[in-house]
């Protein structure tokens, strides 16, 4: 990173921080529209049941209730809540706005609309639904396999006789994304146009689903991204938009639906439960000769993104480890359990958890140090991923591991005794890799943005941004400001609105900074060129002699001869009748690896099985931290979620398929009292194509966390815990298998 | 029934349904939507307000229980639409990301500093233990509260 950069590399709060800290910012649930009605859901209490007669008489008698709908009087056309472009593969249309057959506890079977939310919720409890119970598949063993895959880079070949073969099966659990803001949607229908206010991750994705479902031409569907109180992937599919749009169109009035926490857990989506068997062959010199994986993934009641999710898991490990042979097969199983969908990292944390717990198993079996084993096998800068055939770019994962091990004092701490009393200490390490956008041989990546300069020289960026709360808008502001040499406060950045912002796939695949950010930087360069060209016309000078910076265009070698940006805009408009506005499209031609290596120290209470993380280091191959304040925030937030997934977060189902975690009372997030201090080490370099060398962080920082913590627990106790979370019950059970410690 | 309460220094008389929570009255009847609903069961703290000096979950309190009491919400934290010291510190330290937990965090932290002007780091962690955050990992939030407390202690007469 160049030292001459004015704004890139300097910490900056999120753009709307003051609005948030004063309570002024209106999130979706705060929106009020004249004449607005409120909806409340009736959810299936059964895991699999045909929805028979729906008696709404009592519900309709509740004062304020306007309507009650079930599948008997709602559209029955199926759709995929997951697709973002028409005709998308792996996006089966298996869902309807209201279910005729409930496929999981929490499936939407009816909806009440009333003048107040309280009336709607009261009436929802009074809708009498007759169910015909059907056999329920509550595990993958009894579910329906809807997809199989098998990716292999080479055929099996003979392996050296002294090679070490190790096999580990690791299971990761259903997780709740746990954005603090519950899901919501508000739709209005007037003059043949549907307007939807939604805290989503892709307005154009939501539009293609809703427009085709209701046979509206796309220009008559307006999707507006509204402020979002976190997503972590939980709001990336279009769960509520179809239903709420139906209500607004049917009633001709604005309708708002805000879910409660229990509904967010049961009726939106969860990270899938999956189990993977990892089998590796290790040469005597410590090199991995073969990695074979088989994954079984529980898609839940509807397929949504699970086909792509499972396949994504098969595209991760070769971006992290070198191996001459690699195979990954698997099955996606539909069951009658909560709907599974993408979450932060999209399969990378899941498979990294399996691989990294397995590698500690290999380390124990081979007598090799966990850090040394990984160091001997991690990819190097410039490596080609054999599965995708693409370069991993300036992949610095080895550097992350090396510098992290030094900073964490790994060699010293891994050999320290665990202790013999009630509390045992252990340390763990794990590596993780992720991507930078969705570019592959089959999928192009691009970003189109418009920038316009105002008559005072300030700038507006018009782009389909979906701020999830992590500071994307601030990043884009900084990029524009850096290119134009103006204060970031002179740059206004809006969010996505299909009526006004250019097409964009949305906030997926760690593409925001790397792809969209590069697009914004290109747009700002084009705007600067346009300003210089316009100034040249006004000054009757050659553009080659002009230099734009600090809000001025100067003629080289002619002090005092120049124009302010404001004069350029005003002059262009009044002398030539033109404007300073550019639209440009950036096409990404790379998808390097982003990496994180993390180190955990834990203290385990062998009496209760409780684990406390006592020290944590997250090292991230960031390329360039455009906004270090938010990059570090992303890392620490990711570690909070990762520790939760390692130790306490899990959606547990009873024997009827009912989630036992009706809310945060039973679904435990790590809170401020138990969260350890997290050190963050950023590895910066400038070897990739992101803006100023920046790479993704929000997802990759979550990838290795759970494995680092579980590995530390196993190191402390000499156990081989392979089922997550490592709850007190599991810790005590694992201790029993290695002999009672006390 | 009619409820009489003071919110952010302004006396209100509000006709309410006896089943309404304080959170509903603040958001729906008084339009103070800065107070957020994250779980409705007192676990996440997004709805925290200060009632007669105590930080409380407004989702767990019936509005009727606020009769005659004085309530401070996030909108009342700094007069005149500016930022108080704690708000500024939250912003500068990156303690605000998605922001949905922020009002509740600020109210819990404010109540703490009013009663314990020189809290230990354990006090701060304990005071904020009922406020969940999914974005920040808490560090920036804890640092912001601690640094405001330290600065206040260092001031003459502080």
TrEMBL record, chain A:
PANTHER family: ALDEHYDE OXIDASE 1-RELATED (PTHR11908:SF132), XANTHINE DEHYDROGENASE (PTHR11908). Residues 22-135 form the Aldehyde oxidase/xanthine dehydrogenase a/b hammerhead domain. One of its GO terms (molecular function) is oxidoreductase activity. It comes from freshwater metagenome. This is Unannotated protein. Pfam families: Ald_Xan_dh_C (PF01315), MoCoBD_1 (PF02738), MoCoBD_2 (PF20256). Keywords: Molybdenum, Oxidoreductase.
UniProtKB/TrEMBL annotation, chain B:
Residues 1-77 form the 2Fe-2S ferredoxin-type domain. Coiled coil: none annotated. Gene3D superfamilies: 3.10.20.30, [2Fe-2S]-binding domain (1.10.150.120). One of its GO terms (molecular function) is oxidoreductase activity. Pfam families: Fer2 (PF00111), Fer2_2 (PF01799). Signal peptide: none annotated. Keywords: 2Fe-2S, Iron, Iron-sulfur, Metal-binding, Oxidoreductase. This is Unannotated protein.
């Amino acid at each position: 990173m160049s030292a001459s950069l004015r704004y890139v590399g300097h910490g900056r709060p999120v753009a709307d921080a003051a609005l948030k800290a004063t309570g002024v910012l209106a999130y979706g649930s705060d929106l009020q529209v004249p004449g607005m009605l409120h909806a409340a859901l009736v959810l299936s209490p059964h895991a699999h049941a045909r929805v028979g007669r729906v008696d709404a008489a009592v519900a309709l008698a509740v004062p304020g209730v306007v309507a009650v709908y079930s599948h008997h009087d709602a559209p029955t056309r199926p759709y995929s809540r997951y697709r973002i472009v028409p005709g998308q593969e792996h996006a089966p249309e298996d869902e309807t706005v209201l279910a005729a057959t409930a496929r999981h506890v929490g499936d939407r079977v009816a909806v009440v609309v009333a003048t107040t939310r309280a009336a709607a919720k009261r009436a929802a409890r009074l809708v009498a639904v007759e169910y015909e119970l059907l056999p329920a598949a509550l595990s993958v063993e009894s579910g329906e396999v809807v997809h199989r895959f098998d990716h292999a880079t080479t055929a099996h070949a003979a392996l050296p006789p002294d090679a070490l073969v190790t096999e580990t099966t690791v299971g990761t659990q259903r997780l709740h994304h746990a954005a603090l803001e519950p899901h919501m949607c508000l739709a209005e229908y007037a003059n043949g146009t549907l307007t939807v206010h939604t805290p989503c991750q892709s307005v154009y994705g939501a539009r293609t689903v809703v427009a085709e479902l209701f046979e509206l031409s796309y220009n008559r569907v307006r999707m507006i991204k509204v402020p979002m109180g976190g997503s972590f992937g939980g709001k990336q599919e279009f769960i509520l938009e179809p239903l709420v749009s139906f209500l607004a169109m049917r009633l001709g009035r604005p309708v708002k639906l805000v879910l409660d926490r229990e509904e967010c857990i049961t009726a939106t989506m969860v990270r899938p439960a999956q189990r993977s068997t990892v089998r590796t062959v290790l040469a005597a010199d410590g090199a991995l000769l073969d990695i074979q994986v088989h994954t079984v993934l529980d898609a839940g009641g509807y397929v949504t993104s699970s086909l792509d999710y499972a396949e994504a898991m098969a595209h991760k490990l070769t971006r992290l480890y070198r191996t001459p042979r690699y195979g990954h097969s698997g099955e996606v199983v539909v069951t009658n359990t909560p709907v599974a969908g993408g979450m932060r990292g999209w399969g990378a944390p899941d498979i990294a958890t399996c691989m990294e717990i397995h590698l500690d198993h290999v380390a124990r079996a081979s007598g090799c140090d966990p850090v040394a084993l990984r160091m001997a096998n991690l990819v190097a800068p410039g490596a080609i991923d054999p599965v995708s055939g693409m370069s991993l770019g300036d992949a610095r994962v080895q550097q992350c591991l090396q510098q992290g091990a030094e900073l964490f004092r790994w060699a010293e701490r891994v050999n320290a005794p665990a202790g013999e009393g009630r509390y045992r200490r252990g340390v763990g390490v794990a590596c993780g890799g992720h991507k930078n956008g969705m570019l592959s041989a089959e999928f192009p990546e691009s970003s189109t943005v418009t920038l316009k300069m105002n008559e005072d020289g300030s700038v507006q960026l018009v782009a389909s941004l979906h701020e999830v709360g992590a500071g994307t808008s601030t990043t884009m502001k900084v990029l524009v400001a850096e290119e134009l040499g103006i204060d970031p406060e002179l740059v206004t950045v809006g969010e996505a609105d299909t009526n006004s912002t250019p097409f964009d796939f949305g906030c997926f695949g760690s593409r925001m900074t790397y792809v969209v950010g590069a697009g914004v930087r290109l747009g700002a360069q084009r705007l600067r060129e346009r300003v210089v060209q316009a100034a040249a016309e006004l000054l009757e000078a050659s553009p080659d002699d002009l230099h734009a910076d600090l809000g001025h265009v100067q003629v080289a070698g002619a002090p005092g001869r120049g124009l302010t940006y404001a004069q350029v805009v005003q002059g262009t408009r009044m002398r030539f009748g033109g404007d300073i506005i550019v639209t440009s499209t950036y096409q990404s031609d790379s998808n390097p690896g982003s990496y994180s290596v993390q180190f955990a120290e834990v203290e385990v209470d062998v009496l209760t099985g409780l684990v406390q993380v006592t020290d944590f280091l997250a090292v991230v191959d960031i390329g360039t931290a455009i906004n270090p304040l938010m990059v570090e925030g992303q890392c620490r937030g990711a570690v909070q979620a990762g520790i939760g997934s390692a130790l306490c977060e899990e959606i547990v189902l009873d024997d009827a398929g009912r989630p036992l975690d009706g809310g945060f009372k039973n679904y435990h997030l790590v809170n401020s009292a138990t969260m350890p201090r997290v050190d963050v080490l950023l590895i910066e370099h400038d070897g990739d194509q992101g803006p100023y060398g920046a790479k993704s962080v929000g997802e990759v920082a979550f990838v290795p966390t759970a494995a680092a913590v579980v590995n530390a627990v196993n190191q402390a106790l000499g156990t081989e815990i392979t089922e997550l979370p490592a709850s007190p019950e599991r810790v005590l059970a694992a201790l029993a298998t290695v002999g009672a410690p006390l | 029934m009619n409820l009489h309460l003071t919110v952010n220094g302004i006396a209100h008389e509000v006709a309410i349904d006896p089943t309404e929570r304080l959170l509903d009255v603040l958001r729906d009847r008084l339009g103070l939507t800065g107070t957020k609903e994250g779980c409705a069961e007192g676990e996440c703290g997004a709805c925290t307000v200060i009632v007669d000096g105590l930080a409380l979950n407004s989702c767990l309190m019936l509005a009727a229980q606020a009769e005659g009491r004085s309530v401070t919400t996030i909108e009342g934290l700094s007069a005149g639409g500016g930022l108080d010291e704690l708000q500024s510190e939250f912003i500068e330290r990156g303690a605000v990301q998605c922001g949905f937990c922020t009002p509740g965090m600020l109210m819990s932290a404010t109540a703490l500093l009013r009663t314990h002007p020189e809290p230990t780091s354990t006090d701060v962690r304990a005071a904020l233990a009922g406020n969940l955050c999914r974005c920040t990992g808490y560090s920036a939030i804890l640092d912001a509260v601690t640094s405001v407390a330290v600065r206040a202690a260092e001031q003459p007469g502080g």
